[in-house]
Design goal:
Blueprint (H helix, E strand, L loop, with lengths): L2 E4 L6 H10 L3 E3 L2 E3 L5 E4 L10 H14 L3 E3 L3 H11 L9 H9 L3 H17 L4 E3 L4 E3 L14 H9 L2 E5 L5 E3 L11 E4 L8 E3 L2 E3 L9 E7 L3 E6 L19
Parallel strand pairs: 1-4, 4-5, 7-10, 10-12
Antiparallel strand pairs: 1-13, 2-3, 6-7, 8-9, 11-12, 13-14
Helix pairs in contact: 2-5, 3-5
């Protein structure tokens, strides 16, 4: 299996284009396809905060549903957008406001189209991806060894939000336990959710969310080569959005 797994895009379309070009994909009819038929993989959080969330979501829908050339599993921002499109009451905050603002500028038929596509993408997606005979797991915020193969509510909360304690940091962000520090499973876990300045590799886990939407980088991991490939962000750099694990493991 040959797959290039991309971290949290958050509507950063230029970075998505640059990264896939760097990985050897060719953009044909607005879709990145690899001449050697490598697959793309997405850790979730396609949307929110960045300038082109709906376009990114539509491209991933095309890749997954029409071309069958990508794997996708949702993140917490995907979950929130899905609930918004269903008409559920959600807070239009923490980045969703940028996606909703995009949506509100569309003509009615275009609104219906992207809404239907995203709902289909989300509803057909697994909670997390188990690939290559269980050697590779892609989960938005990570997953514990004992949760692999399970889908109950605690697993969903963990996969979407991480190992949250229920407490918050002074800035309002949730305090999370450092699950990767204690992971000792056989499967390689690829995840994102928590922005880091450089990919964090520990105990056969890879955090590849390098904060593209916060001015960091957009990062991919090439599997099975285990090669890290990144491109710089065009967005303003916001240092406080990046987490550091050297001093406080629960961050």
């Amino acid at each position: 299996m040959n797959v290039d797994i991309i971290g949290d895009i958050h509507g950063c379309l230029p970075e998505f284009q640059d990264l896939t070009n760097k990985l050897g994909y060719r953009w044909e009819n607005g879709i990145p396809l690899h001449p050697e038929k490598r697959m793309l993989g997405f850790v979730g959080d396609l949307t929110d905060r960045g300038p082109a969330s709906l376009k990114v979501a539509e491209i991933v829908w095309e890749l997954v549903n029409n071309y069958k050339r990508a794997y996708y599993t949702p993140g917490n921002h995907c979950n929130k957008l899905y609930r918004f499109f269903l008409g559920n009451k959600v807070q239009i905050t923490h980045g969703l406001e940028t996606t909703v603002a995009e949506y509100e500028t569309l003509y009615k038929k275009d609104k219906q189209s992207i809404r239907q596509k995203f709902i289909e993408l989300y509803e057909q997606a697994p909670l997390y991806l188990v690939l290559d005979d269980q050697k590779l797991v892609v989960a938005h915020a990570g997953i514990k060894q004992e949760y692999i193969g399970k889908k109950h509510s605690k697993v969903k909360e963990f996969v979407l939000y991480g190992d949250i304690t229920g407490e918050k940091h002074p800035d309002g962000s949730p305090i999370r336990r450092d699950w990767a520090l204690h992971y000792h499973g056989n499967a390689c876990i690829i995840y994102g959710h928590t922005p880091v300045n450089e990919p964090r590799i520990i105990n056969n886990t890879y955090n590849i969310d390098t904060g593209a939407v916060f001015g960091g980088k957009l990062t991919a991991l090439r599997y099975p080569e285990m090669e890290i490939v990144s491109v710089p962000s065009t967005m303003p750099y916001i240092p406080e959005k990046f987490k550091h694990f050297d001093l406080i493991g629960s961050k």
